[in-house]
Queue: 4 jobs
Job 1
Amino acid sequence: MTTNHKNQGSFVLKGIAASPGIAISKVFLLRGEAVKIDTTQVESSELEAEVQKFNNAIQKAKNELRALQNRVAQRIGQESAKIFDVHQLLLEDSIIIEETLDAIKKENKSAGHAFYDTMQKYQNTLDESSVEYFQGRISDLKDVKRRVIRHIQGDRTDYLSKLEGSAVIVARDLTPSDTVMLDKRKVLGFATDLGGRFSHVAIMARSMEVPAVAGLRRLSSLVQEGDRLIIDGNAGKVIIHPDEKTLTQYRRLQEKYYEVEQRLSIIRDLPCITLDGKEIELSANLEFSDEVESAKSHGANGIGLYRSDYIYLAKKDLPTEEEQFEEYSKIVKEFPNDPVIIRTMDLGGDKHPQSILIPPEENPFLGWRAVRISLEREDIFNVQLRAILRASVFGNVKILIPMISSLQEILECKTALEKAKSELREEDIPFNPDIDVGVMIEVPSAALLADKIAREVDFLSIGTNDLVQYLLAVDRGNERIAYLYKHLHPAVLRMIKDIIIAGHQQGVWVGMCGEMASDPLATLILVGLDLDEFSVSPFYLPEIKKIIRSVDHSEAERIAERVLEFETACEVEKFMTRIMRKNFKDLII
Ligand code: PEP
Ligand code: MG
């Protein structure tokens, strides 16, 4: 977290972008409910009553959770309701129950005191873990602890019902039950000191489609109830006491967002087709399977990139074949008639799972990454390929291999795939034997060899996020040189054009799943260059579709030709901004 700017009480805190969108409102401050525990020793004659109190509280908590779970399932969906499964399991955990009962009977502790100490012990163990996933589980423990103690003490105050008008919720942390107790219509966004993209508040915010920023560390101690706050869930920052200029700027941005949302209902079910009838595939990028709903509601025709990396990052152990099969199947079943492109793990770089030891490297983004790990750790790759193959029976699954830099790697991947297929065949496990295999073109060597690579695969998907960083030698995460990171750089455009031509000459389709596909300034150029598929962040789907539906393919070709004559990214940007302002006044650019 950094404090970027201080101006007449207005300041900015940077955290982790947990859910997109913009909210401007007053703060509703959820102070951590301090649990008051009576630590006085209980008379032996009263111990049985304490045991009874504890058992009753557990039962009430279970009933309450079940009701809550049903409510969430109805309001938000089955997927989100599963969050409470962990809580039910904790309430049934025999070790927790036994330890608490022992502490009552043998140490003369009150029911509340005994349960608090037991839960605190497990919480401390998780507190010591630096793994984001475990940090996320702490809120499960706290939630259960608070719920049971509330029932032991007979305290049913629902502090969240204090929320009267609309507000943004600021809290140190938010448990899932906190989140769902809130009236969705009144909650405009979340900002929390703790948590990250794996925490419940992030997952819930995304499915509630409200912006959220997590990991703000000190926010809850810096704001007061009723303070004005802007949550920028796209940039992962909050602005406290914004000045008039900032407010005006964000209100404008927010209005644009609302307009896009409104157009959504009109454009969502329309085909993605140019004015003169050229059909273009428009699919969504996914990182978590729980984002499937958002992709569907924004009108995605399938998934163009499912980043399976998070399955590995979310767990201490390697995800099993069964776990992966379930996760992939869940997505495929949501899109039974559309392509679902599952990218094999792209670990390394800045993605370090606990289960695979990736030693520190001088240049991790040029190091042991993605397919390089898959090909060395055949065992792990085999499990993933088997799981993807098994999920392929439910729809139109395609496999996408990241970070390919040579032909040899593709051939080795294909050998690994054949091995997984023959194993499944021998085990009589069904799969689609003709599953399509594609590669990401995100390394310049692969781009230059695109014609040869295309002969070996069924499709190419251009990963501009990495391609731009490797082609322009600009670290994609380095703020200091961010001004050099430009996907409208003439060298990038020329390379994209050549990749598409090479793919088409070999008879394969070419898509793009890098962020450039979500940039409205680039859409007409990419249509003109004959890109077959755009895979974009769900929020941008309607906007990109709107642009595609408003142009003749031949006109887009003329624009692309003109743009390729420019010498600098700045010229391209200016030219495209002019075109977009003239023709798409109503879109965010
Ligand atoms: C890319 O590099 O463009 C891409 C889509 O992959 P990632 O952002 O996951 O590296
Ligand atoms: Mg990449």
Job 2
Amino acid sequence: MKPGVLVKYRDSLPIAPGTPTFTLGEGDTPLVRCDRLAAKVGCGELYLKLEGCNPTGSFKDRGMVVAVAKAVEAGSQGIMCASTGNTSASAAAYAAYCGLTAIIIVPGGRITPGKLAQAVIYGARVVAIDGNFDQALKIVKALTQSHPVTLVNSLNPHRIEGQKTAAFEIIDALGDAPDYLFIPVGNAGNITAYWKGFTEYYQQGRSRGRPRMMGFQAEGAAPIVRGHPVKEPETVASAIRIGNPASWQSATAARDESGGIIDMVSDDEILSAQKLMARESGIFGEPASATPLAGLIKLSGQGMDFSAKKVVCVITGNGLKDTDIALKDAPPFLELPADVEAVERALGWK
Ligand code: AN7
């Protein structure tokens, strides 16, 4: 049995004697070395951190287990979040495990069927608003101030605490920090959490340095890159369709303290990176998860030299959450009778 984030990282988390320590098996995700992909993108060593291997298929579970444990400890009856899909799936699962109510507010028609199916099957109360994520978050902030339910968006500091454990795992696996960490940026909680994790391990002497933090937004939803909120964010990567990130300040702090950047990539760049990752390394991430690889390809194409560098891309969510995108421009399959010879002929073997 996996110990889970609460037990494994007890000493680095806000665990009190009254905090329940349960797990759905989150954390301890694979860090996969991808040499063929590295060669394609001009990178010395390239590793993908497969956060889609968490119980609900995204990195959110690391933070959610801590946020929900603290909500239970505080005697909360319910949790609430706004979501582009993955936070709600995770909140719904951990609430179900603990017997709490989960109320989730999502942008109507804009979260993938896979993510919506998760929230529904876990028994969450789903409210779809006629608006985007930023508007949903505003509503959640207002309602959690006036009602006895716990906000579990990444404004909840326990979420950040849990998510920082992914940085610990990367250092434990590599024996030191990588040179660069490439990561998608939506509401900007995760880049904040990784930087906190890398910094804590560094201060404890567990790594010799810290990586440059390389955050990437989608072009149509790139408020941090543009320097102002985006009123109507738009991108194929629905998970990061966010126009006014809650953790804006801490994301730019992570960028600046690490000597990194926050840049953007187009939807086309995201989708071709998603395909490349799948075909060259056998790893299927949802579009938002391909954003860091798209960023690496972009910078490499601009002449930045990664040939002697160790790079980690965080693959934040499982590709199965958004199969529509993967099938959208797929070539037609061969359709044949159930006949050995017909298949043999079609394959050019006869
Ligand atoms: C796959 O679920 O914001 O910058 O409401 O699902 O920490 O927001 C999801 C975000 C990257 C961005 N990759 O992380 C939500 C939500 C995936 C995501 C991000 C999200 P943050």
Job 3
Amino acid sequence: MLILGIESSCDETAASVVKDCTETLSSVIASQAAEHGLYGGVVPELASRRHCENILAVVQQALADAHVTVEDLDGIAVTHTPGLIGALLVGVNFAKGLAMAADKPLIPVHHLTGHIAANYLAHPQLKPPYLCLVVSGGHTLLCEVKSHTEYEIIGTTRDDAAGECFDKCARVLGYPYPGGVHIDRAAQQGDSTKYVLPRPKVAGSELDCSFSGLKTAVINMVHHAEQKGETIDTASMAASLQHTVSEILAEKTLLAAKQTGYTTIAMAGGVSANSGLRSAMEKMCRKHGYTLYMPPLSLCGDNAAMIACQGSYNYLAGVRADESLNAYASSKLSIAAAKGTAIL
Ligand code: KG4
Ligand code: ZN
């Protein structure tokens, strides 16, 4: 079974061919990050234009690298939610056109389920059910992965995502966009005990978290220091922030594991590349005897291999879309969304 995956939800135009769910035959990524970096963040209109310019060449390259033609494919999978609407529409419309022209099944994929599926590419022995911590630029959630296509969210952020918190703090500390990786690098040189940062409590669900108070605390500390003419030790602030975010996420995951009884835990999304979070999760899992799966760094960020992988499982589960498939900027990760009917 050969599935072509197409991803264009943010600032990466990507295409990949995956064989039999987990064997990556090709993975092409055209990143726009450097260009958006000039503006300090993703410029949606620019992202859409670049996707339009790049998508044909990226898909052709993915097919060529895999030594397959469109005729060889069993299906065409595409990210249809969530993300920047203009950016998503480029991938969705390209996939629709290709599927119709080649008379191939069109398979919708929820971007976050793709991030989760990145683990199957690296660890084919990982099988549902398990608990997954999903941490990306726009989302932070804990979910039960009940099958390859069924999920239940059991905790989420009440406000900012962890990636958003890293990126906004990085910006105020003077690091370029996207800032998460710069926080990670700077943190290696800093003292994580130098600045004491708040660990916001969330009323209601114990498994929910909140990062906006933490972000505001960092921004305020930097501004107050500037006003007083003091200099912030940016490496130590980065280390303190990374330590606090990592501890919060590892604690919430532990609580979720205890409540649900899962002993297999996975991580997914761009922030799962963070070295502090990886070691906090490793430490927690070692201590409690849990088995931890993390995507390799190359599969943490946006790519199309993860979309082709999840697309393969959706295909096997009978998930199909027709030419009425639309893109949705935001949608809940739900069984319905994974099956192609996005709930807004
Ligand atoms: O999953 P992703 O590539 O895109 C979304 O689906 O949102 O995640 C991007 C996020 C950004 O916030 C980026 O700063 C963060 O992942 N990120 C990191 C690291 N690498 C990427 N955050 C902390 N440490 C890293 N090493
Ligand atoms: Zn992503």
Job 4
Amino acid sequence: MVAASVVPAIRRARHVVVMTGAGTSAESGVPTFREAQTGLWSQYDPLQLATPEAFEENAALVWDWYVWRRNKVLAAEPNAGHLALAELESLVPRLTLITQNVDGLHQRAGSPHVIELHGSLLRARCFERGHLAATWPACVPQNPPRCDVCGGRMRPDVVWFHESLPTAALQEAEQAVLAADLFFSIGTSSVVYPAAGLGMLASERGATVIEINPSATPLTPHADHVLHEPSGRVLPDIIACLRDPPGSAESRR
Ligand code: BV8
């Protein structure tokens, strides 16, 4: 069992940092960020839509894309990988969960504290002044909806390309990586910065790096363990090994 190969490193760890990307939600049926968009959206490149420039050019189109994505996320369920990460929290001395995902599935799986580097498409705020909406606004009679406070155009509460990440979230993530002795990179292509820099930072600081991804990424050469497996399959295997008394799981190799 490939999962057993990383169990000794996890048992030794004092502070585990986990960073996830869109691949972690793939087995929940949520398309990864670079997978071909489907239906109406197949003609658009997410890298072009997820920008303030696109919103300025066609706010209604960008808003509709997020309404479509939000509905897909609300119809999705956390998968076995999300649930395994929530359980991992109780099996190691300290765990910090960082995500690039905007789908809220870690929270729904029971992870108590999630650092959302790229915000959440479950929340909306106004483009002009950042007023957060108490609930997701309906796009009638105006599309995009208007802010109740200032009348500005509403946008999803996510970080677009060319926008800075939330300072507090990024600082909390960086501090955790600096203190970590084990770093998991799970389901991310490791190409979007500054999030992608966290895995490199962990490696440079001498933490053990474990990458879980069916494909190779720019982080792969710097990882100590690479599991080319879907996270929804291998994470539950890792948890099963950790639940066994030390030594018994490792003998399953
Ligand atoms: C910024 C929210 C300062 C919106 C997203 C340094 C170097 C180079 C470029 C830059 C740099 N610094 C800044 C940049 C520019 C840019 C950037 O990184 N560009 C890239 C494309 C080169 N970064 C920014 O603009 C960032 N801002 O730095 O501010 C600044 C200010 C002004 C001007 C310039 C800079 C902001 C980045 C945040 C963008 N917002 N999301 C939304 O979602 O709509 S990023 C978006 O990509 C998603 O959040 C996603 O999470 C993220 C990363 O993608 P992944 O999660 O990795 O998903 P992807 O589809 O790529 O890969 C999925 C992986 O899963 C694959 O590897 C696949 O093999 C794997 N997989 C599939 N199935 C499974 C699986 N793995 C496991 N199990 C499975 N079952």
